[in-house]
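Before the break, one more example. Copy the sequence into your notebook; we will annotate it together after we see the structure.
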Amino acid sequence: MDELRKIDLNLLLTLHALLSEKHVTRATLRLHRSQPAVSHALAQLRAHFDDPLLIRQHGQMALTARAQSLAKPLQDALGSLNGLLAAPQFDPAQARRRFRLSLSDYSSRIILPPLVRHLRQVAPGVDLAISQASRDSMLAQLLDGELDLALGIFPELPADITAQTLFEDRFISVADRQVLPAEGGLALEDWLTRPHVLMAMHPDAHDEIERALAEQGLRRHIALALPHWSAAVEVLAGTDLILTVARRAVGPMRQHPSLRQFTPPLPIPALAYQQAWHARKDSDPGHRWLREAVWACSQPGH
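Here is what the structure looks like once it is written out:
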């Protein structure tokens, strides 16, 4: 490192042009500099290396032995330095990388299948490690660097966390058709008196439906709190339970012979489903590529 302090690094660019062109005038054109400036730089280089570097031989310029020995190491060094300064690139076909994602059963059903298919086709060396956590835990893990990406609903975000809305979804209620009117759904009073299923990581979670009820001074009875969607279909069939969930989550339930969907009898704002990440990942090209892939795979009809 001490030797670097003895030379202006711009002189190394001039040296590279001189060694490549073996001619001062051509080096001048290549560098877009004046000939006196390049000649002055050559004089400085000769003094630094204590070698003429370029000599006239048989009527043309030739490299000295010292100059020849410098050519390859200099080219490699400048190439490495250019790579260091250039914006990093991400080639999904060649990448070998593991991303840590946290997402709910809901997004696992909707986004994960098309995302995994996409990765296997275009980025087979990109691996995913999937975990499940509460909203607060997801944000804490993003802040601590334990997660690369979190998918969920984040009404409030810490200062260093960025979120992008992937899609909006509306709510639908589902129940056993035997406990519903022959046509239509339930009136609000009937809907409130029925026992409900809460889909949440924690049984005391205050979700979007609870907030909509609270705004109207209403409450519902949570008879069963579940963290997993897979059990919801089976517990609804043959019971008087009601499940109110985002519409895209009920796909498999549409085929269940015992269940029927209906519109909830109160206005519930559409949920904005998001992907969230720490600001430190903003300029990471691999992470940016993953975010774009998640967005594409989350779109309806993908």
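The first helix runs from residue 9 to 21. The longest strand covers residues 161-169. Try to locate both features in your own notes.
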